[in-house]
Amino acid sequence: MSELLSGLLSGLQLGSLQLSGLHSAWTAVLNMSLTATYVAAVVILVRFFLKKAPKIFSYVLWSVVLFRLLCPFSLPSDFSLLGVVTANLRTQAGVLEYVPESRSMMPQPTIPSGDAGFEQGGEQQAAAALPPSSAMTRGETLAVGMEILSVIWLAGMVILISYSVLAYLKTKRLLQAATLIKDNIYESDRLSTAFVFGFIRPKIYVPLGVRGADLDYILAHEQTHIRRRDYLLKPLAFSAIILHWFNPVMWLSFVLMSRDMEMSCDESVLKRVGGEGKSEYAKSLLALSVKRSGLFTLSPLAFGESDVKSRVKNILNYKKPGFWVVILLAVAVGGMAFTLLVNPADKEPDLSFLNPDNLVSLLVQRDGAQINEAGYPYPIIVSGVELGKWLDRAANDWKEKKFSSSYELTPSITIQVNGDNEIHFFEAEPTLAMIQSGEQYRYYAIPEEDFRVIQKLTLLAYPKIQSVTMSEWKKGEEVTSVTSTDSTILEMAVHLAQEEENPSFLWRYTSVNDVSATANFMRIVLEGPSVAYTYFLYTEDGKNYTIEKPYERINKINPDTGQAIIDLFRKAQVKLP
Predict the structure, then answer these.
(1) Helix (H, G, I), strand (E, B) or coil at 470
(2) In CA terms, which of 31, 198, 248, 422 is 20 to 30 Å from 357?
């Protein structure tokens, strides 16, 4: 039975894993984008204080944002400025994980089979499979949402890449009739401004009839772009924008980076022509200014395309900085760039058993873990491996909490992990857990759903479910019945009691009756000292099976699962004396 259920789960997981590659890529890009957003916020703030400094320093800082957008890895350092905002983040192989890889893509816990999952002893101990938790359900919902977002992200990139290619081809077609002036300089009557175009051998294109000082200023400006390889950096930056198109901060950063690029280029020209050429240079810029258009978004470095008003103001106010001012600025900006380039150094790991992650390692080494419920005399034995898997996921949302109460809390549920290591849950405070190791303890704020998971486990687990009665009905009358305490049958019983959370149940409806929808069905009753559950198993077409819990739910299930339950019923009949 357990192999069958595990196979059904694996089959469903296989379908979801078809998008795992895209999902992983989207998660990696999202993490890079969040890191770059923090870096960009710092650069924008620093840029404000560098308002009167040469724009080359602001321009250099944008390279850090570009690095964070394109490279997920970085070296750790105690001097990382990101440590302020990423103090509680985990770093995996040099990558900051704001959004971890979805855990729901991992194989789900399976119901343990045989004695490994169900132990019977003189004290009426038995094991039960850990039910899928609400936290896991939230994780699965998040994973589905992430997969949908990953598809939207891919579609957005395809649209932007298509637009960029068309814009590039349109620009190239526009320049086919350009006439060579000299070297790599061309002119055309179809242009209204000058710009650099090309990736391998960039060329300078100017409007027809531009001569004299205007042409000198244009050529000095565009040749500076070529010398600094701006014709490669801008398309690279736009490629990063395509990758992170969903992030508005990156679009703002691209605009500000382009502005700083042009202003620093203007200042480079002014260093050569001197202060007396500022007015003439500003006039040339105004004469050849154009509005921002899609044509110049991707690659061309247009002379008069980027925020001409601010550039003219910057040109007229420009003063060549002193040597020591430049040195101090270079040191300060270099230090700032370093603190933004590196990741926070990993903190010394918490190796105590008051850390849930360390309890996980203990649990997964044990065949069974013991759960004690206040007021119930018998411990419940569950799979330590499955409980460890659940805790590994759930503890991601646990936050250490300083807790004080006017009354002494009494644990309602205690998980005995190993020796003196225990996890306590409190019905009076369902959003609180306490980990105790000997005389030491630590409180954690937890999602209430996590308490409900453990509470549900204690409600459904054997020995509270001590027997299963299966009866066959034909034409509305009982034909045969068998009551079983066999561990394999009990596995199926616990599985049925938990089926509302199980992904092998494919469709769900609301039940409004207390009788089966068909005259031929199997009635399954789960019984214990304080619980009883009734289910109907039937098929209306001979192929598809339905599990119905009266007045609660009707679930369509996999035909193999339905047939497996019937086979267990037949096997239980054979074992009768």
Answers:
(1) strand
(2) 31
Nearest to 295 by CA among 160, 161, 168, 165: 168
User: Measured between alpha carbons, how far is residue 209 from residues 29, 131, 300, 303 in Å?
Assistant: 47, 79, 20, 16
CA–CA distance, 46 with 65 (Å, rounded to integer): 13
Q: Give tens-digit pLDDT for 516-544.
A: 888 899 999 888 776 678 889 998 887 78
Is this model's pTM higher than 0.70 or not?
Answer: no
Average pLDDT over the chain reads 77
Non-local CB neighbours of 373 within 8 Å, separated by 6+ positions: 380, 412, 413, 458
Q: By the 8 A CB rule, do 219 and 195 touch?
A: no
The pLDDT > 70 percentage for the chain reads 76
Buried b / exposed e over 132-166, threshold 16 CB at 10 Å, is: bbbbbbebbeebeebbeebeebeeebeebeeebee
What distance, in Å, lies between the first and last C-alpha atoms of the chain?
A: 23
The pLDDT assigned to 314 comes to 84
Q: How many residues does the chain have?
A: 577
Instruction: Tokens 């479910």: give the residue.
Output: 465
Q: How many CB atoms lie within 10 A of CB 195?
A: 27
CA 236, CA 226: separation in Å to the nearest integer?
A: 15
pLDDT score for 59:
92
Query: How many whole angstroms separate alpha carbon 143 and alpha carbon 163?
Result: 30
Phi, psi of 315 (to 5 degrees): -65, -45
Rounded Cα gap, residues 371 and 128, in angstroms: 11
CB neighbour list of residue 519: distance below 8 Å, 6 or more residues apart: 473, 474, 475, 476
**Using CA atoms, how far apart are residues 224 and 10, in angstroms rounded to an integer?**
59
Instruction: Supply 84's token pair.
Output: 């302020």
Query: Could you report the per-residue pLDDT of 202-242, keeping only the tens digit for each?
Result: 999 988 888 888 888 888 888 989 999 988 999 899 999 99
